[in-house]
């Protein structure tokens, strides 16, 4: 049994009562949470393989909204089934062919249009987790409308076209992520130094595994809690600095 590269132990997740609501945007469903006061700043949250309904990701949307941003998590899987922890790992490669994190441009544009026209957003950032971290890395190379990005443990694919970021991007990794080696992280850093002309940051959190930063407080282990909280604070600080 090969170690599951994307998935982390989803264990028993506590129920989460969401603060936001679901909307339909053209052909996409999305979960939106707005802060109590009007803002012209927004953040798109890109879910992981478990999809836009996963409680952890909704918790993150609400958390970001609590910092004064319109936060939105669209269904980047466009109504198709997300990966489930009961699915067979042998089918994962086939599932990924139909759920390519590099093919998110059209959905991103639909959501950007909605945020600008319906929510009055003038500055828009993006954060993404795992599958979503890969999507953020891709979009920060392609879409100049996104003023800042945070990619959390997105698998790194090495190629020359992956380093010329358009706007400030922060890469968050766990030291003990069995899907992303420290060598890959060092290579990313080296290449960004060489090619990247905007602000970027790479940070590795000690002892942390894949998926660590999206746990809800009641699902955290005490030893991990300080690192999870630090990663979230760092994520928000990056957004506040540039969005």
Write the layout of secondary structure elements.
Layout: E1 21-25, E2 28-33, E3 41-46, H1 55-65, E4 70-74, H2 92-97, H3 105-118, E5 123-129, H4 131-142, E6 146-152, E7 169-174, H5 182-195, E8 200-205, H6 225-242
Parallel strand pairs: 3-4, 3-5, 5-6, 6-7, 7-8
Antiparallel strand pairs: 1-2, 2-4
Task: Please tell me about this protein's structure.
Mean pLDDT is 91; it is low at 1-6. It contains six helices and eight strands; from the N terminus they run βββαβααβαββαβα. The protein has an eight-stranded mixed sheet, with helices on both faces. β5, α4 and β6 form a beta-alpha-beta unit. With 243 residues, the chain is an alpha/beta fold. The radius of gyration is 17 Å and the shape is globular. 31% of the residues lie in helices and 20% in strands.
Short structural description:
By secondary structure, the protein is an alpha/beta fold.
Labels describing this entry:
AB_hydrolase_fold; 6 helices; Dienelactn_hydro; Carboxymethylenebutenolidase homolog; alpha/beta
Number of domains: 1
Please describe the biggest sheet, giving its number of strands, its sense, and whether it closes into a barrel: 8 strands, mixed
CATH architecture: 3-Layer(aba) Sandwich
Terminal-residue CA separation: 43 Å
Strand order of the largest sheet: 1-2-4-3-5-6-7-8
Would you tell me which CATH topology applies? Rossmann fold
Number of DSSP strands?
8
The chain-level mean pLDDT equals: 91
Specify the CATH class: Alpha Beta
Helix-strand sequence: EEEHEHHEHEEHEH
Shape summary = globular
**Rg, alpha carbons:** 17 Å
Task: Kindly state the percentage of residues in helix.
Answer: 25-40%
CATH superfamily: Alpha/Beta hydrolase fold, catalytic domain
